[in-house]
Every structure is written in structure tokens, then in C-alpha cells.
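Chain and conformation:
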Amino acid sequence: MNDYYEILGVPRTATQEEIKRAYRKLARKLHPDVAGPEAEEQFKEVGRAYEVLSNPEKRQMYDLGGESALGGGGAAGGFGFSDIFETFFGAAGGASRGPAPRGRRGQDALIRLEVDLRDAVFGVEEEVQVDTAVLCGTCNGTCTRPGTSVQTCAVCGGRGSVQRVARSFLGNVMTTSPCSACGGHGTTIPDPCPECSGQGRVRTRRAIPVSVPAGVDTGNRIKLTGSGEVGPGGGPAGDLYVELKVRSHPVFARRGDDLVARVQVPMTAAALGTVLRLETFDGVQEIDIAPGTQPEEVLTLPGLGVGHLSGNGRGDLKVEVDVEVPTALDDRQRELLTELARMRGEERAEPRLASASNGVFSRLRDKLSGR
């Protein structure tokens, strides 16, 4: 733990005046403009010690619990010494960081795109319309009228910053700040481009192609590098993110990379067996309903589901069988069913407990687990 009294070289009984004198002496000695950049951290440390010990409340808290009582680092909220240092002496101890580039990276953009379930199965090529900033076609991002160019700033001489001597309790110190004449760029634009007003970019609406791969789902995002907004000053473009939403389908539902459909067959067809024709995304498929097919039975058509995002293969098509039991019988139909029940010994059928391995709950479990 840092000992702020030791850093300033004063005893714990030092008065506020003694602390101020010790700080001024060390600050003049260690200021980077005097001692060089290598003294910057020590100079900041002296400042943090003075910030705490010169404040009676902070000093009392420090005396009771050290730095931890101040919330860490000696800065108990408010305007810290590092902020004061930045304000009065510049970010690099008075040293210039050079002119700021005029061109900056543009913002990323987000747009939403809805696609059909068929598009998620096979993939699709789409086109989105985006209102965005593009490179100015008149000046090509130079920001100047064609035939002219930027000029070196006469105030800062192209450095992008100016230095001034300021008087403070430390004496005369050199401060560095961005040049107000050129905005810190080091150059000015005496004759801006009339098309973009010196911005290097203009706003327009443009069409951007999007390749949607098979296997996408709602919430997936496609990143189009460099298709976002062109930056100020003709800077590089950001990225465009396309967020997808897959529309629901009237027949097929999606379960992972499998498709699920539900077909209804009459009780007699389930008992005797039949062949159904189902229109799928791959055309008409014939489905064999075997004799004795039970309600909720699931038939699998392999490879007719959604394409995998990895690009290898597809999921399956699961067809759930819903057996329709007749509810309105005429006399002849009732007579025939009664005769059938008599022949099968089911006139007064007693309920039978199904095996736990074949019950509806186990079938539901198997469906959810993909068995």
C-alpha cells in the first residue's frame, strides 16, 4: 500500500501548509517538462498523494483505513488527479500526439430480413435496401472541390495541436491542446466539395445482395464486412449486420434441423393401411401407412429436413399420424362396427393399462429427444 505521507516526505502530524509546500517542491522537480517523460508516473503519484492529504475529509478517511477506505487508488469520487493532469498539462505531459486523421471508420448498421421456411431449408439469395452513407462520388472522399486540395493549417503548422505557456502554482508550465483552427487535423479545407459539404460522404439508398445460407433460424445474424456506413472524411466503411426472421409455415414446423408435419388418416385407413401423398419442399412424397398404424406414430423421411449450417447434409422430415375416430355414424355404419366389435370380443371392452415403454408419455419423450 502506498504511504502518501512518505511520498510527500512529510510526517503524519504535518499541517496543511507543510503538505502544500512539500507538494509544490516535488511537483516543480518532477514535472515532465522539467524531469522528462520518465518522471510522469512519479509526478502523478505525488499528485494523488496531495489530492488526498490536502482534503481534510479524505485525509481523515485515509488515516483510518488507508487507500482501501477511499475506494481504491486514493480517488474517492469526484474529479481525480489524472483528470486534472490531463486538463492542465495535456495527455502526454505536454508532448504533441500528432494531427488527428480526418477520415474515421464509419458506424456499423443493423437491418432485419424476413425469409420463408423454404429459404431456411435450401438457402437463398436476397437483396436488402439500406439507407446509408457512401463515398462521395464527386470528391472521392477527399472532402475538397475537384481540382483543389487541403492546406496545411497556418495556426499549428500541420501539427494538429498548439502549445501555450500557462501560469500556475507550479510556475510557468507548457500546455498542449488540439488546434481550434483545424480541429486537430493539421490541415484545413479552404474549398469544400459542393456535393458532400466537405464530409467526404453522402447519404443514399442502395441495394445490397445478401447470401442467406441453408440452416439459418430466427435471430441468426449475417455479417457483411465493409457494407455499413462510410466514415467521416471518406473513412473506411463499418459493417452491416443482417438479422434474420424465418416466417412460419402453414404445414411444416421446425424442430432443430428437422421438419415436422401432421397428417390425419381415417380410422379404417390406419387399421387397413394406405398410401398418402404429401406435398413437401422436395416435391410430392408417398408415405406408406402400414396396417395397424397407431395414433401419434411418427414416420421418418430421411434427408428432407432443413439444411445444416455446416453445409453437410440435411435434417429429416417427421410425419406424425393423427388417426381420426368417426363421431357421426348412420345405422348401417353402427351395425357394421358393432358386428366388428362382437367378432373381436370387444362388445364390453375393459380398459387395459398400456406398458410404460409404449405409452403416450414415452412417445412424447421419444419425439422430443429425436428418437
Q: What stands out?
A: The chain has four domains: 4-89, 109-138+198-246, 151-188, 253-369. The radius of gyration is 39 Å. Confidence is low (pLDDT under 50) at residues 72-96. Residues 31 and 43 are 6 Å apart (CA to CA).
